[in-house]
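Hi Q.,

Before the meeting this afternoon, I wanted you to have the fe (iii) ion prediction in hand. No need to reply - just skim if you have a minute. The sequence and ligand are here:
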Amino acid sequence: MALEIVTVPCLSDNYAYLAHDAATGATAVVDVPEAAPILNALRERGWKASHILITHHHGDHIDGVPALAAATGARVIGAAADAHRLPPLDEAVAEGDVVRVGLASGVVIDVSGHTVGHVAFHFPESGVVFTADSLMALGCGRLFEGTAAQMWRSLEKLAALPPDTLVCSGHEYTAANARFARTIEPDNQALISRSDAVAEARAAGRPTVPSTLSEELATNPFLRAGLPGMKVAMGMTDASDAEVFAEIRARKDRF
Ligand code: ZN
Ligand code: FE
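Predicted structure with the ligand bound:
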């Protein structure tokens, strides 16, 4: 049975997620910006956190881990490469490792770029991937530690997942991302419709995440860097995919 996913808004614009395996009652919490909203979301549903999955070391994703772990006894799982800068881990993982949440299995994907050591968790049977600040709705994380080439490789791995995969990312940045995306591809009809849907969701106070990978493939300029049409639009017909990605990322940084 597929994991049940709950989106939990935290801080000003962060998202944590609950992933619940109804068969066993196991519940993973993906990232813990702060403990209180997550404990409330668990309590409302009568769920108990059994696992905490950490995507990367930034405070807005881990600051609530110690409190949540203390309150629940959940098993804390994060990247071995980042163990020195994460809260104490019960399980240290690397690319290709499998984490088990009840009957569900999640594959660890190294998605370095935003940070080096950032991981995503892909649960193939549930059709969901937790990407935090790697692939985001209509965007991608800023390159604080990794190179553009590293992030492009990470995005290529995520782009190769089944298109109907649900993408659970870490922030509500989608409206600003949409404004930027439209400067890159002003004539992309799927992007125009999605921008309208994003504006409508925000006006109603609804999150714009999760999205689907197919939506991202159709509208997210960072994932589209390798398309011939994108290279023409960028005036970079002879450049490599990673170079085009780097230029889109650089423009976003200045936007
Ligand atoms: Zn971050
Ligand atoms: Fe973040």
